[in-house]
């Protein structure tokens, strides 16, 4: 069966399953013979090979496409070359964080959807030259085919189904998935939809439970005056078995969730149905660092709760303050993606709160839903505008796509008014709001940054794509207390000058560049010390007076001080490679610290080397993202029995105590030096002073989300160093759009 021609540029495709009888080519394609490619699986296979050799796509992508071809052949089907191509491309897209490939978008704009060839390839007119051959690009091939023909071909292919068969590829409307990712999305959507559909006695605003909720909110927030989005978030999240509370830095996500848990325990305490039994609550975060940060803030927030004024006899023990990593909660097992807790071994929990939910990928989120009892309540917290997870998916971002406008139905608005005393503004109401909208709350007021804070102004401008010359000038001229654009007067510096600036900034924090030399600021009712750079932790480490007679507890306390001083300042880079990337800058800073005699060597292990763990090590109890500092300690003895200095790396204990784990460098497997870290790795962390280094060239990974995440890692001071100012502006215009069908699935009844 042949399809008719779609346009002059598009060829008709043979949709039959007849085997390809053309001889296999022995050499790669020599010209733009895209029609020949679309007629021969062997030629397409050779082209995929060529793309792999040029590192456009991964061996995994080619391997997957070939597997599809082999499986099809085993079933007597000669795989159409286009299906072979699309199989490799969907795998390529998953490697880039997408959950699927939307063919409608792909056929409309393959160049920007695929980013092939990668930006750093050497391009030749009309194709890429590799030696003597010219290699067609995916968009030139796809331009020869119509979306309709492609869908028809996929429909006929035995490797593809709508998900009802166990095929390796799943086609849902125009979205093509690897089966595994389609299942993740399905499990997540089912978990959310089932919870949104569960009715709760709280839905009746006149029920006893709803009355208790109203009383609890008054005790926690006081009488309603101006609209308080934290109060609204508490009410909404209490009503549903699934909810999301999103907000920028310091908007009170932790404060709100602690009040929410208190309100839920108050309701449980008063409930006749539960016999006053309180909920079993667990708190988790995707990384050790994020868990530790929530650990730090939650204790204070719980201690400030007016528990005695709540109904239901809520005690401090009813609200947990210990936060675990999601991997620990679910029970990771080495060398497998499977967890100990799953559908057959559910978690013993009534309410699960997950912070920093933007870092959760599809795989992990699906595992969370698998391990949760059907009636357990899930509350996600996070900043929807931050970078999405490293692996495929952007679950939080998708769930919060409509959060800014709320879309509360008249029913939700009436209920919120009855429970909270706040009337919902018209611009947040929508008669056709979807079920998910009714369970998403956005916090809109920052309690950490004042209106005139530079960090807040810059982050908002980046987030809303309104970064203009005025804001940049204010950063350059030190008009903000907390932000400085260090090379603002020379926005396109000589690389050597910029790198020298990074070095001296790393040592001292350059307080003199900030307004009033960084003096005179108040934070949390205390004077805020000026910026200090890495000099601070190295001085503590190099000038202590401990020796072999000192008790271990004194060493622990020194290590804690040094670790805390280290976390005061952090250089963040957009890139990993090259002179502006983490690797180049780590090397540069280490050599500078050596030249200034703050450290004794710049390579290998040495006292003062800060390290970042880059993979989970269950034997050592170290998690990806943990940071340690190397010390020289006199705890071993030489053959004469005299104290001998050896190196140990000090990591903070993970149990929320002030303990230290001292680990020998030889036992550490996956780690890197961390004077600089990528913005991606910094997610879930926060530093007193963050310096963001942007390179002199734009790359596809430099996006609005990356710049926003970099800026919002700063608690009190933010400095910017740009290789070229236009790169900052251009990055803000680039946004990540990860293909997925989750939002669409959830929007369907
Ligand atoms: N309604 C409020 N009124 C006054 N201060 C508040 C309020 N809510 C939160 N805060 C204060 O603002 C600061 C930030 O709050 P919180 O830690 O809850 O925010 P967050 O959104 O969880 O922050 P992060 O960005 O670190 O995740 C805390 O010092 C907290 O005590």
From TrEMBL:
Q: Which reaction does it catalyse?
A: ATP + H2O = ADP + phosphate + H(+)
Is Transmembrane one of the keywords?
no
Q: Where is the AAA+ ATPase domain?
A: 239-491
Q: Which Pfam families match?
A: AAA_19 (PF13245), RecD_N (PF21185), UvrD_C_2 (PF13538)
> A Gene Ontology CC term for this entry?
exodeoxyribonuclease V complex
Main enzyme class: isomerase
**Has the keyword Isomerase been applied to this entry?**
yes
Q: Which residues bind ATP?
A: 247-254
UniProt xrefs under SMART domains: AAA
| Keywords assigned by UniProt, alphabetized | ATP-binding, DNA damage, DNA repair, DNA-binding, Exonuclease, Helicase, Hydrolase, Isomerase, Nuclease, Nucleotide-binding
The annotated regions of Polar residues compositional bias extend over 1-15
**One example GO MF annotation:** DNA binding
EC number per UniProt: 5.6.2.3
- Mind telling me which SUPFAM superfamilies this protein's record contains? P-loop containing nucleoside triphosphate hydrolases
Instruction: Please give the residue ranges the record annotates as the region Disordered.
Output: 1-32
GO BP terms, alphabetized: double-strand break repair via homologous recombination
User: What NCBIfam families does this protein map onto?
Assistant: recD (TIGR01447)
Instruction: Please give the family membership noted in the entry.
Output: Belongs to the RecD family.
Q: Look up the further comments and give them.
A: In the RecBCD complex, RecB has a slow 3'-5' helicase, an exonuclease activity and loads RecA onto ssDNA, RecD has a fast 5'-3' helicase activity, while RecC stimulates the ATPase and processivity of the RecB helicase and contributes to recognition of the Chi site.
> How does this protein assemble?
Heterotrimer of RecB, RecC and RecD. All subunits contribute to DNA-binding.
Q: Which PANTHER family match?
A: DNA HELICASE B, DNA2/NAM7 HELICASE FAMILY MEMBER
What biological function has been recorded for the protein in this entry? Answer: A helicase/nuclease that prepares dsDNA breaks (DSB) for recombinational DNA repair. Binds to DSBs and unwinds DNA via a highly rapid and processive ATP-dependent bidirectional helicase activity. Unwinds dsDNA until it encounters a Chi (crossover hotspot instigator) sequence from the 3' direction. Cuts ssDNA a few nucleotides 3' to the Chi site. The properties and activities of the enzyme are changed at Chi. The Chi-altered holoenzyme produces a long 3'-ssDNA overhang and facilitates RecA-binding to the ssDNA for homologous DNA recombination and repair.
The protein's name: RecBCD enzyme subunit RecD
The species is Marinobacter salinus
Lineage start: Bacteria, Pseudomonadati, Pseudomonadota, Gammaproteobacteria, Pseudomonadales
Per the record, the gene is recD
């Amino acid at each position: 069966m042949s399809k008719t021609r779609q346009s002059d540029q598009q060829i008709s495709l043979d949709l039959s399953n007849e085997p390809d009888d053309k001889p296999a080519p022995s050499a790669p394609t020599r010209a733009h013979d895209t029609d020949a490619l679309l007629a021969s699986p062997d030629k397409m296979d050779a082209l995929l090979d060529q793309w792999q050799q040029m590192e456009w796509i991964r061996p995994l992508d080619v391997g997957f496409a070939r597997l599809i071809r082999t499986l099809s052949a085993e079933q007597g089907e000669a795989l159409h070359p286009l299906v072979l191509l699309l199989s490799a491309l969907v795998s390529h897209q998953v490697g880039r964080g997408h959950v699927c490939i939307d063919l409608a978008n792909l056929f409309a704009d393959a160049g920007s959807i695929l980013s092939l060839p990668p930006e750093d390839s050497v391009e030749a007119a009309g194709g890429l030259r590799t030696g003597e051959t010219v290699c067609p690009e995916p968009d030139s091939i796809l331009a020869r085919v119509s979306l309709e023909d492609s869908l028809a071909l996929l429909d006929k292919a035995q490797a593809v189904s709508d998900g009802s068969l166990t095929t390796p590829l799943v086609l849902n409307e125009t979205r093509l998935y690897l089966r595994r990712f389609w299942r993740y999305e399905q499990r997540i959507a089912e978990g959310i939809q089932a919870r949104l559909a569960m009715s709760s006695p709280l839905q009746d605003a006149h029920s006893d439970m709803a009355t208790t909720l109203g009383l609890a909110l008054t005790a926690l927030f006081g009488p309603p005056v101006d609209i308080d989005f934290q109060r609204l978030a508490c009410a909404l999240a209490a009503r549903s078995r699934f909810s999301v509370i999103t907000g920028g830095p310091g908007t009170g996500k932790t404060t709100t969730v602690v009040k929410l848990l208190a309100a839920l325990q108050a309701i449980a305490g008063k409930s006749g149905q539960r016999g006053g039994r309180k909920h079993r609550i667990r708190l988790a975060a995707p990384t050790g660092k994020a868990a530790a940060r929530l650990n730090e803030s939650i204790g204070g927030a719980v201690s400030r709760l007016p528990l005695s004024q709540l109904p239901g006899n809520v005690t401090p023990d009813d609200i947990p303050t210990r936060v675990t990593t999601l991997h620990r909660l679910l029970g990771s097992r080495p060398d497998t993606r499977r967890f100990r807790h799953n559908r057959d071994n559910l978690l013993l929990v009534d309410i699960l709160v997950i912070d920093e939910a933007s870092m959760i990928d599809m795989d992990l989120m699906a595992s969370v839903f698998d391990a949760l009892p059907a009636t357990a309540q899930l509350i996600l917290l996070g900043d929807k505008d931050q970078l999405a997870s490293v692996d495929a998916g952007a679950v939080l971002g998708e769930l919060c796509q409509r959060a800014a406008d709320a879309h509360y139905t008249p029913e939700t608005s009436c209920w919120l008014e009855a429970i909270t005393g706040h009337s919902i503004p018209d611009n947040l109401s929508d008669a056709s709001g979807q079920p998910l909208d009714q369970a998403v709350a956005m916090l809109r007021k920052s309690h950490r940054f004042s209106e005139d804070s530079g960090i807040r102004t810059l982050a908002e401008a980046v987030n809303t794509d309104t970064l203009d010359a005025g804001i940049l000038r204010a950063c350059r001229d030190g008009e903000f207390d907390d932000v400085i654009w260090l090379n603002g007067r020379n926005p396109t510096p000589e690389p050597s000058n910029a790198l020298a600036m990074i070095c001296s900034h790393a040592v001292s924090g350059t307080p003199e560049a900030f307004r009033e030399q960084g003096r005179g600021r108040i934070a949390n009712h205390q004077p805020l010390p000026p910026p200090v750079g890495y000099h601070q932790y190295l001085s503590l480490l190099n000038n202590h007076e401990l020796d072999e007679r000192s008790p271990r507890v004194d060493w622990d306390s020194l290590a804690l001080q040094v670790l805390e001083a280290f976390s005061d300042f952090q250089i963040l880079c957009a890139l990993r490679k090259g002179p502006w990337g983490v690797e180049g800058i780590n090397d540069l800073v280490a050599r500078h610290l050596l030249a200034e005699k703050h450290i004794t060597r710049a390579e290998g292990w040495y006292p003062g080397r800060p390290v970042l763990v880059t993979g989970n090590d269950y034997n050592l109890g170290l998690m990806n993202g943990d940071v340690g500092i190397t010390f020289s300690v006199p705890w071993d003895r030489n053959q004469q029995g005299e104290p001998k200095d050896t190196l140990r790396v000090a990591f903070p204990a993970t149990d929320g105590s002030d303990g230290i784990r001292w680990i020998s460098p030889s036992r550490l497997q996956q780690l890197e030096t961390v004077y600089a870290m990528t913005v991606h790795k910094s997610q879930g962390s926060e530093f007193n002073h963050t310096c963001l280094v942007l390179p002199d060239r734009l790359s596809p990974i430099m996006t609005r989300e990356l710049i926003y995440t970099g800026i919002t890692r700063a608690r009190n001071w933010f400095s910017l160093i740009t290789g070229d100012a236009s790169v900052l502006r251009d990055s803000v215009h680039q946004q990540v759009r990860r293909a997925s069908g989750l939002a669409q699935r959830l929007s369907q009844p």
